[in-house]
C-alpha cells in the first residue's frame, strides 16, 4: 500500500507521536503613574488613591509624599484596559474638582 495514490504524502507509518505545545504569553502589564505638580492638593491625591486604588489612608499619604519628593510614583500595575480605565476615571474626577492631576499609563518593564 505504499504506492496507494489515495494516501496523503504526510501520512507516515511511524509510531512517533509529536505533541504540539501552545505558546502562551503572559499579558503585558501597565503601570498607572502619578506625576507631581504644584497645584493639586495633597488631600485630593490621598482621596483619589483611597477611592480609585483602594489604598488605606496611611499608604495613600506615604505614596503621595513619595510622588511629591521624587516627582513620580507607580500607583498600581494592571492589564492595559484596566490601567487606562483607572487613569481616565481619575482624570475625569480631577477635572470635576478643578485639579490638574496628571497620570500616565506606561508599560511595566518587569
> By helix and strand content, what is the structural category?
alpha+beta
Q: Quote the distance from N terminus to C terminus.
A: 57 Å
Task: Quote the beta fraction.
Answer: 15-25%
Sheet of most strands? 3 strands, antiparallel
Number of strand elements: 3
Give helix and strand order, one letter per element, not per position: EHHEHE
Give the spatial strand order of the biggest sheet.
2-1-3
Oligomer: single chain
Q: Cα-atom Rg, whole angstroms?
A: 26 Å
Net shape: elongated
Helical run tally: 3
Give the helix level as a range of percent: 25-40%
- Uncertain runs are none
Nearest-integer average pLDDT = 89
Summarize the structure.
The protein is an alpha+beta fold and 110 residues long.
Explain what this protein looks like in three dimensions.
The chain has 3 helices and 3 strands. A 3-stranded antiparallel sheet has the order 2-1-3. It is elongated, with a radius of gyration of 26 Å. The chain has helices at 42-53, 57-70, 80-96; strands spanning 29-35, 72-79, 102-107. With 110 residues, it is α+β, with helices and mostly antiparallel strands. Helix 1 crosses helix 2 (57-70) and helix 1 (42-53) crosses helix 3 (80-96). The N and C termini lie far apart (57 Å). Helix content is 39%, strand content 19%. The longest helix has 17 residues, at 80-96.
